[in-house]
Automatic annotation (TrEMBL):
Name this polypeptide is given: Phthalate dioxygenase reductase
Species for this entry: Paraburkholderia fynbosensis
Lineage: Bacteria, Pseudomonadati, Pseudomonadota, Betaproteobacteria, Burkholderiales
InterPro entries: 2Fe-2S_ferredoxin-like_sf, 2Fe-2S_ferredoxin-type, 2Fe2S_fd_BS, Beta-grasp_dom_sf, FAD-bd_FR_type, FNR_nucleotide-bd, MRET, Riboflavin_synthase-like_b-brl
GO molecular function, one term: metal ion binding
Stretches assigned to the FAD-binding FR-type domain: 1-99
Gene that this polypeptide is encoded by: ophA1
């Protein structure tokens, strides 16, 4: 759908807030805390950005976008947008939802990962739910939306940390995650290293994986790197029996597209879950950051935008 950029504001060093609305003033599709949209800021670019405004709002979508020094073009194009610009977006999708029955929620954000976490905090605060929010950045100048954390409904729940502060003022994960329970949930978003730091601590402290939720903004370098040992394999479509060859240098999604078989993709890094596909036979070689360890172990689904096969043949529910 088409939206218009009605307000662009610098909210931290290298971070802008972009506020979009329907050009005719109509209500936008509803969204839930943790949702994201696909944005097409320029020809050839499709990027995912989390919504960070109050999920009760229907008159606008607000994004926070970091200018990435190693941008593939998406963040540079977003930062170049001017107020009044029209662009295409998708309706909101949510692969990072809140557990609405939680007795207590622990929200952890690193850097620009604050965007979905802030939306979650807004939703929890207005629902009068029990939660706490911990936001880590390198320095105060890089902390986005600081004025929102000072609002009366968020301030009592929020704590900000900076790498420039003394050690005593840093995030103490051992304390924050000290009390795992079946009705308590943890949510983390940010750079891959920050997420892995939190996930490792949660495992060590006894949190069940089903109670720890994460959303990556990009695949870690190890996942995105080329694998010299990659070899060819085949994919069979269950509906037609057609077999497609996947070369060592191709993704499954790429091989299918070349064969004239279109599947929905978005991030192409195994992050967003758009292309999640059921596996009926064969053993996937998972290279995504979307599935949990338990979901990977089940070997009954994969992300064809990045994952491959350990077996000569994969039968997919396509």
């Amino acid at each position: 759908m088409k939206v218009q950029l009605i307000r662009k504001t610098e909210v931290a060093r290298d971070i802008v807030s972009l506020e979009f609305a329907d050009p005719a003033g109509a209500a936008l599709p509803a969204f839930s805390a943790g949702a994201h949209i696909d944005v097409m800021p320029a020809d050839g670019f499709v990027r995912q950005y989390s919504l960070c405004n109050d999920p009760r709002e229907t008159h606008r979508y607000v994004l926070g976008v970091l200018r990435e020094p190693c941008s593939r073009g998406g963040s540079t194009a977003m930062h170049a947008l001017r107020e009044g610009a029209l662009l295409d977006i998708s309706e909101p999708r949510n692969h990072f939802p809140l557990a609405l029955d939680a007795a207590h929620s622990i929200l952890l954000a690193g850097g620009i990962g604050v965007t979905p976490i802030l939306c979650m905090a807004e939703g929890l605060a207005h629902a009068r739910a029990s939660f706490e929010l911990h936001y880590c950045t390198r320095e105060p100048e890089r902390a986005a939306f600081r004025e929102r954390f000072a609002a009366p409904h968020l301030k009592p729940h929020s704590r900000l940390y900076f790498d420039t502060a003394p050690a005593t003022g840093r995030l103490d994960l051992e304390r924050v995650l000290a009390a795992p329970a079946a009705d308590r949930h943890v949510y983390v978003c940010g750079p891959a290293g920050f997420i892995d730091f939190v996930l490792d601590a949660a495992r060590r402290l006894g949190w069940h994986s089903e109670n720890v939720h994460r959303e990556y903004f990009g695949a870690p370098a190890a996942n995105a790197a080329a694998h010299d040992s990659d070899g060819p394999f085949q994919v069979r479509l269950a509906s037609s029996g057609r077999v497609v060859d996947v070369a060592a240098t191709q993704t499954i999604a790429g091989a299918l597209e070349k064969a004239g078989i279109a599947i929905a993709t978005s991030c192409e890094q195994g992050v967003c879950g758009t292309c999640l596909t059921r596996v009926l036979e064969g053993e996937p070689d998972h290279r995504d950051v979307y599935l949990t360890d338990e979901e990977r172990a089940a070997n009954d689904q994969l992300l064809p935008c990045c994952s491959r096969s350990k077996s000569p043949l994969l039968v997919l529910d396509l």
